[in-house]
Design brief:
It is a single chain. With 710 residues, the chain is an alpha+beta fold. Helix content is 33%, strand content 29%. The chain has 15 helices and 25 strands. A five-stranded antiparallel beta sheet has the order 17-21-18-25-24, covered by helices on one side. The protein has a four-stranded antiparallel beta sheet with strand order 4-1-8-7. A hairpin with a 2-residue loop joins strand 19 and strand 20.
Length: 710
């Protein structure tokens, strides 16, 4: 065991990353893959002076000290400014050493990125480590060094004008737990954008930011007049509105994206309950962006103590039931239902601190609505007793409840998570949910007790099923994973093999491999072809749904859980960790960055194709009964329409609608009702992720009460 005392002195001639010719540098120290120290940020300075000290405990000297310098960008991804290594094995023990490190970028080894000056001293701690008292002394000394480092960080935090640490979820919502309104934005198009590529074109995309909320549009390849037609929502925290920062970029594979221009929207200047068409001139660049912006009143999203319970108040409950009664079908179609979540307590959580405790708080998310509880300090069995209420815009949404450990000097640590589809909720039942890992593929330590109520209008929910899903504006970026690529390939192969096996079966009927079966197929073929009418197609699908339904209610459930997908999901996190270590050691990802983007695209296409086939299968397998019943209603209606109305009239109406759609609504977002319906049906992967784990019997509240009495 060694103690490494570092004094981060200063930097000289660092790289400029901001448009003003300066940077806001800070330094990360890492050993192996673990970050051991992060410096404060020096604003607008290429020759920063830190004079910060850090005390680090080192197990061995095989791993070098990895120094990375970044330029801080609020709300955006921080820019890389260079890195360097310090070989700890080359340091003399017990002797202060001044070190000058030259910063380099692996992608551009010829660039001069400046230097970092350090003072280090390495002290051995193993001499008497086998003695108990010496071990305790070493541990206490290490803890004192760590506390000193933490106090130094806190001191500059309080004195700094800008809060520049990583944003934690609790920080994001500390100012207000209530949305004041919703900003609905439709990105229509860009006009005469600046050409950034050698071919005289660009691959533009647009970033939006309102406070901590972000949205990134899709990339439109090789055009200066892109047509996006994308719609998304932001939330307003303040009555007076806010400023939406908009930046346009040109996508460049393998290198830094080019900046096209920026503009802003002042929401305080826009009237509410009215759609505004805005043509915004891009500053620091060329061209215009065309937007539709609508400000609407706040949805019911709130947090309160357990004593304040909307549904337990009989009068308020009747008002909510009346609001979503079948008689109010056409009143505010976007308001589908009401969700109340009681976050009661958690038990047996993971210990995230060296003291063997955690400081847990809970985040409750429904699409883009996020609320959180207070933090219960030094406790592995916290009680929150909070009630969260949400407006439901899509009954097929998934409620996500995540438990974090609050860490004052860095981002919050993940403790566990559950994902609960709204349609699977049993109203008013207090349940113990086993917490899962980040990928929702396996259990982690602890359970959380929730009581959930859902009230919704089934007709509104059915109509909303046929429009595009709400897109989450805070999502993790996809990255290359061999395990994920293999999993998606196997899923797609299974879907294709269903079609191949069906083709073999039909061909076997033609070959008379089984004479009785071939004879029956021949008679059926003659009968169907001679009497065929178009309405029989949805009728056959209707009979298939009905047949599977009777199999399920009779106890002959033909839905088989895919153990291959489950096993691969459970192994995925471990494989990703191995991939990360290998890529960091070999620099593989850095060398084939452009190829990675192509591989990720192929990986996502495999996922989409496999998910499409699985969603069709799960519709007929009654995986989500609400959607299967909705399919039955739709097929019945389609059967009647095709039976009563000649096909040419149906095609004529369809064609007229398609040809006149853009004339009637120029800024309408194109959608396919069938694909929107299937997007609500979970794939096999999502079925596994949303599946509840069986809680440990020891966590039963009745057994716990009995033990307490004992």
């Amino acid at each position: 065991m060694y103690q490494l005392d570092i004094t981060l002195r200063r930097g000289q001639s660092l790289a400029a990353r901001d448009r003003g010719g300066t940077s806001d540098p800070y330094v990360k120290f890492k050993i192996g893959r673990k970050e051991v120290f992060r410096s404060k940020i020096i604003h607008k300075n290429l020759n920063p002076v830190w004079e910060e000290k850090a005390c680090i405990l080192v197990d061995h000297l095989r791993e070098p000290l990895y120094i990375k310098v970044f330029d801080y960008d609020f709300g955006l991804q921080d820019d890389f400014m260079g890195s360097a290594f310090l070989d700890l094995a080359q340091l003399e023990l017990n002797r202060p050493t001044d070190v000058t490190l030259t910063l380099k970028d692996p992608h551009y080894p010829d660039h001069d990125l400046g230097i970092i000056l350090l003072s280090v001293i390495l002290t051995p701690k193993e001499g008497e480590s086998r003695d108990v008292q010496s071990s305790i002394h070493s541990f206490l000394h290490w803890r004192i060094c760590e506390i000193k480092t933490m106090l130094m960080r806190k001191s500059w935090k309080r004195s700094s004008k800008f809060q520049t640490q990583s944003l934690r979820l609790s920080d994001l919502h500390r100012k207000s737990h209530l949305w004041r309104g919703i900003v609905s934005i439709t990105l229509i198009e860009g006009r005469d954008l600046k050409a950034m590529d050698s071919n005289g074109l660009s691959d533009p995309y647009v970033k939006f930011r309102l406070g901590h909320q972000k949205y990134k549009s899709k990339i439109m390849p090789k055009t200066l007049n892109p047509q996006w037609r994308e719609q998304f929502d932001f939330h307003l925290y303040e009555e007076r509105g806010g400023i939406i920062d908009i930046t346009a970029w040109d996508k460049d594979a393998g290198k830094r994206d080019d900046f096209i221009g920026r503009c802003q929207v002042d929401l305080s200047a826009l009237s509410r309950e009215q759609t505004h068409k805005l043509e915004l001139q891009l500053e620091e660049g060329e061209g215009h962006l065309v937007l539709l912006v609508t400000l609407t009143a706040s949805a019911t999203v709130s947090i309160s103590d357990l004593s304040v319970n909307s549904l337990e108040d009989q009068k308020e409950r009747e008002e909510i039931l009346k609001r979503y009664s079948p008689l109010r079908i056409f009143h505010n179609l976007k308001d589908v239902g009401f969700l109340q979540v009681k976050v009661i307590r958690a038990e047996g959580l993971m210990a995230a601190d060296v003291t063997g405790k955690s400081d847990p708080f809970c985040v409750v998310e429904l699409n883009n609505d996020r609320l959180l509880t207070h933090t219960v300090y030094k406790n592995l069995n916290p009680e929150w007793n909070k009630v969260f209420t949400f407006n439901i815009k899509d009954i097929h949404s998934v409620l996500e409840v995540t438990v974090y450990d609050e860490d004052r000097d860095r981002s919050a640590d993940f403790l566990g998570k559950v994902a609960i589809p709204l349609l699977s909720i049993q109203n008013g039942e207090q349940k113990a949910y086993v917490l899962k890992n980040k990928q929702l593929t396996g259990p982690t330590k602890g359970v959380i007790y929730l009581e959930i109520d859902v009230i919704f209008n089934a007709v509104k929910a059915s109509l909303r099923t046929l429009i595009p899903k709400e897109q989450k504006y805070i999502e993790e970026e996809n990255r290359l994973s061999k395990q994920l690529l293999l999993r998606n390939f196997i899923r797609m192969k299974r879907c294709v093999m269903v079609l191949v096996n069906a083709a073999y079966y039909v061909n076997s009927c033609f070959d008379w491999d089984s004479p009785p079966r071939s004879l029956a197929a021949f008679v059926l073929f003659l009968f169907v072809v001679w009497n065929f009418e178009l309405y029989m197609i949805p009728l056959v699908l209707l009979l298939l749904l009905t047949w599977n339904y009777f199999l399920i209610i009779s106890g002959k459930d033909n839905r088989q859980r895919d153990t291959v997908v489950e096993d691969m999901l459970e192994d995925e996190e471990e494989e990703d960790d191995k991939d990360d270590k290998d890529s960091e050691k070999k620099g593989f990802i850095n060398k084939i960055y452009a190829i990675q983007e192509v591989c990720v695209s192929v990986q996502n296409i495999l996922d989409e194709v496999a998910s499409f086939g699985e969603r069709i299968k799960n519709t007929f397998n009654w995986t989500v009964p609400f959607l299967s019943w909705l399919a039955i209603v739709a097929l019945c209606v389609l059967t009647v329409i095709l039976y009563c109305i000649p096909l040419r009239y149906i095609v004529l109406v369809w064609g007229i609608n398609k040809f006149t759609k853009k004339l009637r609504s120029p800024y309408a977002i194109d959608n396919n009702e069938l694909l929107d319906f299937l997007s609500r049906v979970p794939s096999d992967v999502q079925v596994v992720q949303y599946q509840e784990l069986k809680p440990d019997p020891s966590h039963s509240p009745y057994k716990r009460k009995k033990n307490n009495l004992g």
